[in-house]
Amino acid sequence: MDASFVDSNLFNYGILPLLIFLSRVGDVTIGTIRIIFVSKGKKYLAPILGFFEVFIWILAISRIMQNLDNYINYVAYAGGFAAGNYVGMLLEEKIAMGVLIIRVITQKPADALIEQLTSLGYGITSVDARGSKQDVNIIYTIIHRKEMRHVVDIIKHYNPKAFYSVEDVRYVNEGAFPARSTLLGKTPNGSAFRRWRKGK
After folding, report:
1. What's the mean pLDDT in 36-40?
2. What is the pLDDT of residues 81-139, one digit of tens each?
């Protein structure tokens, strides 16, 4: 068998589909980050990412158009799109950009929860309100996105049946945000919570 024929088949049915797959993973991942930047108002970074996203996509689709009889490229293209979505979501979780507002509605006194969040440096706004059946407390706090799981764990510990919602905040003028501390604290049931000190 001619060596050039083998090399050609290796490129067309092995290397080329792999390159298309990786290119698609790259452009979809960049697209995911670009959408995050758009939602956060990053008007300078989003266009730059958009340029590379489309550039990589053009490279991938041009290779497919040059090899329309190679169906493995189609599978690689679709697989890269699916994998790119997954990688993009994982990367979005790691980056955890921006700030969130957490709204907590409790049907029992929330003094312990408010005291805990305040002691950790979170800015709290508490409002007494009337629910459909009884009086409730509404607590608002704005946090960095990367702190969401930590704050939710605190809410579940002090008020397991509390209703809470989380929303993205595009712009924040001022606020109290805790800075990381090397100390560790424990809740009454023994689960560890990171300790924080108040900072800007």
Report:
1. 80
2. 999 999 988 888 777 677 888 999 988 778 888 888 888 888 888 888 887 777 888 99
d(CA 165, CA 124): 15
Domain residue ranges of the chain, discontinuous segments joined by +:
3-95, 99-199
Single pTM value for the model: 0.61
Provide the CATH number for the domain formed by 99-199 in this structure.
3.30.70.120
Residue-wise DSSP of 90-104:
HHHHHH--SEEEEEE
* pLDDT at residue number 84: 93
Rounded CA separation 7/172 (Å): 58
Per the CB < 8 A criterion, the answer to whether 103 and 164 are in contact is yes
- CB burial of 75-94 (b: ≥16 within 10 Å; e: otherwise) equals ebbeebeebbeebbeeebee
Q: Are 171 and 180 in contact (CB under 8 A)?
A: no
Q: Can you read off the two tokens belonging to residue 165?
A: 């919602």
Helices and strands (H and E) in the chain: how many = 6, 6
Give the residue from 80, 91, 84 showing the smallest Cα distance to 37. 91
Per-residue pLDDT for 171 more than 90? no
